[in-house]
């Protein structure tokens, strides 16, 4: 299954379907939430930011279409990305940006429309200090995210799964969706509760 096929199938579902389908799904902390109200789907390009916004610029140079920048947090609490970097990411056809830390330019981010998730918002930009590291396992939202993991997110939250596992779990998630659709149809038809879940 190629990337576009996976994406097309996945965007019809919610993260809840994947969490119900398998315990192999890693759920990123709920403190990292949508800044731009768009689902996100792509391959993790991991960034240990070292509290340096220049690390994000470098990551944008290195990343490829369909990548999601997954950025580790920083101790200063200052923003690691905003409208300008999101605009670059969109022009490069990246799938989105996730920051275990702060962003800024919320109105600008919404205008850009790139899927964007962050823990918090701060108008101050992070300092340029030592360069970060790229494409290594990082901690994001209290779980380990590895380079190349499949990332999927919506208004319910964010998940990370190896690509190999994701392909298997996708079919199970579709089955969960179909089952829930049947249940909802029965509820709307005013069936007795004892018969809804049969």
Polypeptide structure, described:
This protein has 198 residues and is an alpha/beta fold. It has a domain at 26-161: Ribonuclease E inhibitor RraA/RraA-like (Glucose Oxidase, domain 1, 3-Layer(bba) Sandwich). 36% of the residues lie in helices and 27% in strands. It is built from seven helices and eleven strands. Strands 1, 2, 3, 4, 5, 6, 7, 10 and 11 form a nine-stranded mixed beta sheet that branches. Strands 8-9 form a two-stranded antiparallel ribbon. Helix 4 links the parallel strand 4 and strand 5. Helix 2 (15-21) packs across helix 6 (163-188) and helix 4 (83-91) packs parallel to helix 5 (106-112). The longest helix is centred in the C-terminal third of the chain and has 26 residues, at 163-188. The chain is elongated, with a radius of gyration of 18 Å. The mean pLDDT is 95.
């Amino acid at each position: 299954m190629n990337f576009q096929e996976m994406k097309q199938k996945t965007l019809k579902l919610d993260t809840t379907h994947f969490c119900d389908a398998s315990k192999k799904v890693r759920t990123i902390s709920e403190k990292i939430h949508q800044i731009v109200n768009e689902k996100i789907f792509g391959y993790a390009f991991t960034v240990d930011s070292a509290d340096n916004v220049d690390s994000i610029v470098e990551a944008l140079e290195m990343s490829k279409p369909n990548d999601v920048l997954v950025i580790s947090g920083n101790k200063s609490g200052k923003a690691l990305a905003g409208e300008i970097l999101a605009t670059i990411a969109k022009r490069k056809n990246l799938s989105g940006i996730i920051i275990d830390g702060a962003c800024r330019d919320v109105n600008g981010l919404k205008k850009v429309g790139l899927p964007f998730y962050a823990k918090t918002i701060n108008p101050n930009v992070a300092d340029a200090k030592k360069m970060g590291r790229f494409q290594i396992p990082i901690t994001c939202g209290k779980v380990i995210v590895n380079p190349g993991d499949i990332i999927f997110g919506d208004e319910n939250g964010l998940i990370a799964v190896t690509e190999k596992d994701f392909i298997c779990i996708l079919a199970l998630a579709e089955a969960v969706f179909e089952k829930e659709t049947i249940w909802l149809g029965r509820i709307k038809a005013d069936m007795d509760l004892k018969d809804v879940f049969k």
